[in-house]
Amino acid sequence: MDAADGSPGRADTDWDTRARDWAEAQEQTILPLSLAVLDELGPWPGQSLLDLGCGAGQFARLASDRGALVHGLDASAALIDIARTRNSMGRFQVGDMEHLPFPEAEFSVVTAFNSLHFARSPARAVAEATRVTRPGGRVVAATWGPLTECDAMAYFLDLGGLLPATPLDAVPAPDLSDPDTLRVMLSGDGLAPSPWRTVPCQWEYDDLETALRGLLSTGPAARAISHSGQKRVASTITESIAPYRRTDGSYILHNTCFYVTVTRV
User: Fold this and answer.
1) 8 A C-beta contact, residue 45 and residue 63
2) Cα-flanking dihedrals φ and ψ of residue 11, to 5°?
3) Which residues are CB-contacts of 164 (< 8 A; sequence separation ≥ 6)?
4) Considering the entire predicted model, what is its pTM?
5) Distance between CA atoms of residues 159 and 152, nearest Å
6) For the chain, where are the alpha helices, taking DSSP H only?
7) Which long-range contacts (CB under 8 A, 24 or more apart) does 216-219 make?
8) Chain centre distance of CA 2
9) What's the fold here for domain 8-150+168-204+256-264?
10) In which element (H, E) is residue 202 found?
């Protein structure tokens, strides 16, 4: 995942600490989204893919299994190491999605799953994704839905209360959980966005230990821990997800993701 401030060094702090936990306990929560995009953009043999904010390489592995030539870029060195292990035929590197180290029109598909909102300038990241996409190729941007459609937003909002206060003169980040905001960002010259699609993505955990393993592994959790301490963050997460605990001790959070597919004309 790319850093919120666009800095690979910051992402090392945010995502590297619990990269294995992310890969094993949290990354699969967006599997339905990955499968929906794979089905829509197929067939994959011969297509070249760049996955921005590729994390531990789950989507790249699935695309490779369907015949794609896969590349992945992420600001976290630890996640890139896992992605390389999972994808022996792919090419993965540490980098910044706002300054892609690839020539123009290199890929037939460029994807960004829940990663644009970590860029310092999402619009710059979109411009770079477009630049490296071939004419006739597709750019796919996906993100979480709004608060009313995502139980997980309680978790993110509560983590936000454990972070340093935002400076008064800070420029507000665009709300990428708003489908219209995302479509406008992807409607520049030479781009033809599709209607947005919705995909249910449940966060499901067998018990509290598994839930905390996954939810403490994210970049926002790592930043909260560095500011407020792990004990307080774990306690806050436990309280946040308590309404979603089932009688058998497992947890399920119902969420909606949405994505937009853009064709470069």
Assistant:
1) no
2) -65, -30
3) 227
4) 0.91
5) 11
6) 8-15, 19-21, 31-41, 58-65, 77-86, 122-131, 153-160, 179-185, 208-215, 219-228, 230-241
7) 216/18, 216/21, 217/18, 217/19, 217/21, 217/22, 217/25, 217/26, 218/15, 218/22, 218/26, 219/1, 219/3, 219/4, 219/11, 219/14, 219/15, 219/118
8) 9
9) Rossmann fold (3.40.50)
10) none
Structure tokens at 198: 């919705």
Contact present, 147 and 225 (Cβ < 8 Å): no
CB 125 within 8 A of CB 97: yes
Nearest to 166 by CA among 5, 3, 2, 1: 5
Q: List the chain pLDDT tens, one digit each, 265 residues.
A: 544 333 333 444 589 999 999 999 999 999 999 999 999 999 999 999 999 999 999 999 999 999 999 999 999 999 999 999 999 999 999 999 999 999 999 999 999 999 998 898 999 999 999 999 999 999 999 988 888 899 999 999 999 999 887 665 555 667 777 767 777 888 876 777 888 899 999 999 999 999 999 999 999 999 999 999 999 999 999 999 999 999 999 999 999 999 999 999 8
Q: Which two tokens stand for residue 51?
A: 């996955």
DSSP symbol at 25: I
Helices marked H in 106-170? 122-131, 153-160
Instruction: Of 1, 44, 24, 35, give the one whose Cα is nearest residue 199.
Output: 35
Single-letter residue type at 24:
E
Secondary structure (3-state) at 93: strand
